[in-house]
Design goal:
The chain has helices spanning 12-16, 23-29, 69-82, 95-100, and strands at residues 2-5, 40-46, 49-57, 60-66, 88-91, 105-107, 114-117. The chain is an alpha+beta fold. The strands form two sheets. A four-stranded antiparallel β-sheet has the order 1-2-3-4. It has a three-stranded antiparallel β-sheet with strand order 5-7-6. The model has no long low-confidence stretch (mean pLDDT 96).
């Protein structure tokens, strides 16, 4: 199941709370996850557990995370149908998923652990 929510939704922290400030997540993706007020979150959920998520603010993807890459791929393909995504700087961890979803990926020497997608 894919749902869209923000940090004002009643169940938001029930789903997402464990990801904020998680050193494990930060080490896995070389990025920190913040619950900024103006972000929308797309969550890929099975059995009431978040398996992948993408945050978006002003048509820019801010965060990506998944347990398995096929979950993120399904989520990004869904989002591409819902949103007109602008160029976004994202963790390099999921480069192959971004490409598989049809995003153009550009390496950026200024950002060692990140790439730009559009």
């Amino acid at each position: 199941m894919i749902i869209k929510m923000n940090n004002k939704d009643e169940r938001f922290y029930q789903y997402m709370g464990k990801f904020f400030g998680s050193r494990l997540v930060e080490r896995q993706i070389n990025d920190r996850i913040y619950d900024d007020d103006k972000k929308d979150w797309y969550l890929y959920i099975e059995r009431d557990t978040v398996l992948a998520f993408v945050s978006i603010q002003n048509k820019i993807i801010k965060n990506t995370y998944c347990y398995k890459e096929e979950q993120l791929e399904k989520l990004l393909n869904y989002i591409r149908k819902q949103e007109n995504i602008s160029a976004s700087i994202l963790t390099k961890k999921y480069v192959e998923v971004y490409k598989e979803c049809g995003f153009e990926v550009t390496e950026n020497e200024s950002y060692k652990n990140f790439v730009t997608i559009c």
